[in-house]
Amino acid sequence: MKFLYKILLWTIITMAAAFGFSGYFFVNFVFRTALNREIEQALDDSNILQFAFETAALNVPAKYDVLQDTAVEQIGSKLESGGQGSGRLLRLSNEDKQVIYASEGFPEEARLIGQVEENIRAYQIIPQGEHYYIQTGIMVNVLDRNLYLETMEDVTEVFAERTMGFSVYRKVTVVMLAVCSAVMYFICSWLTKPIRLLAGATRKMAEGNYGYRAQVVSNDELGMLTEDFNSMANVLEDTIGELQNEVRAREDFIAAFAHELKTPLTAIIGYADLLRSRKLDEEKHFLSSNYIYTEGKRLENMSFRLLDIIVTKREQIEAQPMAVQVLFQYLEDMFKANTQQKIGISYEPATVYGEVNLIKSVLLNLADNACKASAPGGVIEISGAKREEGYLFRVKDYGVGIPEKELKKVTEAFYMVDKSRSRSRNGAGLGLALCVEILRLHGSELHIESKVGEGTCISFCLPWERETADENSGTDET
Predict the structure, then answer these.
(1) What is the rounded CA–CA span in Å between residue 405 and residue 408?
(2) Which of 11, 80, 144, 394 has its CA 20 to 30 A from that of 103?
(3) How far apart are CA 459 and CA 394, in angstroms?
(4) Residues 6+ apart with CB under 8 A from 152
(5) Distance CA 22, CA 114 (A)
(6) Distance (Å, whole) CA 450 – CA 460
(7) How far apart, in whole angstroms, are the C-alpha atoms of residue 193 and residue 187?
(8) How confident is the model at residue 467 (pLDDT cuts 50, 70, 90)?
């Protein structure tokens, strides 16, 4: 059952119960009030009849010392005739509770007389056929006789009014329930509208429409719930987008990796087959062997780079203090035999924190990329300087540069701006991807500035982990 109908059903049940109980108590209260009024009236009439009987008895001629039964009958007859039209019946009984006079239709049972005593009145309500009567009883003491005077008054109208009251209230209750049900249906529809909208948004998202949002139609708790749902949907959509991008990146990585493996392996297999199947002269034999060696080294280099990237996929490093002089001296030793480019190294002495071998790998990759991007005789500048936020390393070349649209992709694994130049120099497009992972572990990142035809400047800043002591500013150039 829908939530709307549940609310409506329980509302109708609650209203029906409330109307039923309130109607029952209200009609009964009115009935009890009217019945008590009739009882008081009947008791008052009984007192009046008592007084009238005693007065009539005193006016009887005194032939006897005791009031005779015949006189009682006469007085009773006169009292009954005097109340004709009032619907009142009466009965007179002697000391032994034997009936002396009774109106026609007066019931024969004498249970009420047993409750009557001197100065004590009694009454009861008795049904007779379709009618209801109030029977009263009182003792009359006159001329040395104790007689019992009973009256009966018809109160059927009071009971009929109660029956009519219940009937009318039932009809009113049915009408009120119908009207209230219609009103509550619209109220419940309005109150549950945010829930229906949320349910619709959930179904849309389940069908794959992650951009769908629920409409906020109220400022209450349900409105807040809708806003929270939309916020959650935004986060979910962003997360799914990131996951999809990650999946695409992995697919691209696998495709590029397969392609990069295929190219050198094809060359290796081809030249190996040539050496195996033919007898070549010394020059061709050397060229074929050299191709196999070069492509094998490229595969080896790519394997090591991939292994380095996998190794750096960790969450923390063991940072140790290291002098930047050691890093720049390492670069100088690595590239001092380079006769194709002019490499200038300058730096400010300082102590930084990190893993020495990892930072060396970053600087070596950046310098190697700068050499590959530069023409023979090109200038490459490698520098280091202290900044307030940390120590800044810069590698700048004046080579071919990187197109602006390629800048965001150059740090992806296997991505190469110029594949022919990279392959000719044993490149696999893994250097910058490795640098990004290493710097992430050190709390830093690459900053790349480049213009096509003017060159590229790549920098990163290692943050200070604590104050360095005994630092002397200066410049050392080689």
Answers:
(1) 7
(2) 144
(3) 4
(4) 88, 89, 90, 91, 103, 106, 107, 126, 133, 134, 135, 136
(5) 39
(6) 15
(7) 10
(8) very low
Domain boundaries 312-477, corresponding CATH code: 3.30.565.10
Among residues 84, 122, 78, which one has the least CA distance to residue 101?
Answer: 78
* Helix and strand element counts for the chain (H, E): 10, 13
Task: Give the mean pLDDT of the chain.
Answer: 80
Superfamily of chain region 3-168: PAS domain (3.30.450.20)
What six digits make up the tokens of 427? Answer: 């490149």
Judged against a pLDDT cut of 90, whether residue 384 lies above it is answered with yes
Q: How many other C-beta atoms lie within 10 A of the C-beta of residue 445? A: 12
d(CA 214, CA 196): 9
Q: Give the pairing of strands 390-397 and 455-463.
A: antiparallel
CA of residue 458 relative to chain centroid, distance = 47
- The CA distance from 53 to 77, in Å, is 11
Q: Which residues of 375-413 are buried (b: 16+ CB within 10 A; e: fewer)?
A: eeebebbbbbbbeeebbbbbbbbbbbbbeeebeeebbbb
CA distance 305 to 303: 5
Dihedral of the alpha carbons of 121, 125, 126, 132, in degrees to the nearest 10:
130
- Residue 134, classed as helix, strand or coil, is strand
Question: Measured on CA atoms in the order 226, 231, 236, 237, is the torsion positive or negative?
Answer: positive
Please indicate whether residue 116 or residue 338 has the higher confidence score (pLDDT).
116
How remote is the C-alpha of 105 from its chain's centroid? 76
Whether the CB-CB separation of 89 and 99 falls below 8 Å is answered with no
pLDDT in tens, 409-418: 677 655 544 4
* DSSP H or E stretch at residue 406: none
**Contact indicator for 372, 383 with CB cutoff of 8 Å:** no
Amino acid, single-letter form, for residue 388: E
- Domain ranges within the chain, ordered by starting residue: 3-168, 312-477
Q: Which residues pair with 128 in a beta bridge?
A: 131
How many angstroms separate the CA atoms of 386 and 171, rounded?
93
The predicted pLDDT at position 86 comes to: 65
Q: How far apart are CA 303 and CA 277, in angstroms?
A: 29
Which pTM does this prediction carry?
A: 0.47
- Is the Cα torsion angle 135, 137, 143, 144 positive or negative in sign? positive
